[in-house]
Amino acid sequence: MASPIAVVAYDPEWVLIFEQIRDFVLPAVSDLVIGIEHVGSTSVPGLAAKPIIDVDVVVKAPEHMRIAVQRLAALGYVHEGDLGVTGREAFIPPQSMMWHHLYVVPVDNLELKRHLLFRDYLRSHPEEATTYGELKHELAHRFRDDRGAYSLGKSEYVTGVLQRAGWNG
């Protein structure tokens, strides 16, 4: 059984954890990537979040995906496939590292564009981040053991934020 959903207050240490992950991964893929992005709620200062860092490794072209998967496996990452998101490859981190979500995506991937637009909008609209954090706290309390209901409860708000940010994907 999965652990209960826990949404906690923003922790500035999340930036440092992201940097450790980035610095571990980057040497293995530096020739393939245009960047490694901290995405998700932990990447927005002041936003309450589940304390799990989300990382998008952005490769220059789709043909670099397979090579990146192989190199990350050599670091100890376990490839999980796309987990239902076409064009994005997910990984379980090495046992020696703190749990995090790591994805490899090509630069033109729609999910990457959505992640960055959402993150950047919340970073530049702290009142939206506060409202979203309050919603996440309430949903985590109400759906403590139901990740599907928790995610569904956020989806309408996320869609609204993306629309306000100019998403048309």
UniProtKB/TrEMBL annotation:
Q: What Gene3D superfamilies does the record point to?
A: Beta Polymerase, domain 2
Q: Which residues form the signal peptide?
A: none
Q: Which domain of life is it from?
A: Bacteria
Tell me, what's a Pfam family for it? GrpB
Coiled coil start-end: none
Write down what this protein is called.
Answer: GrpB-like predicted nucleotidyltransferase (UPF0157 family)
Q: State the species of origin.
A: Paenibacillus qinlingensis
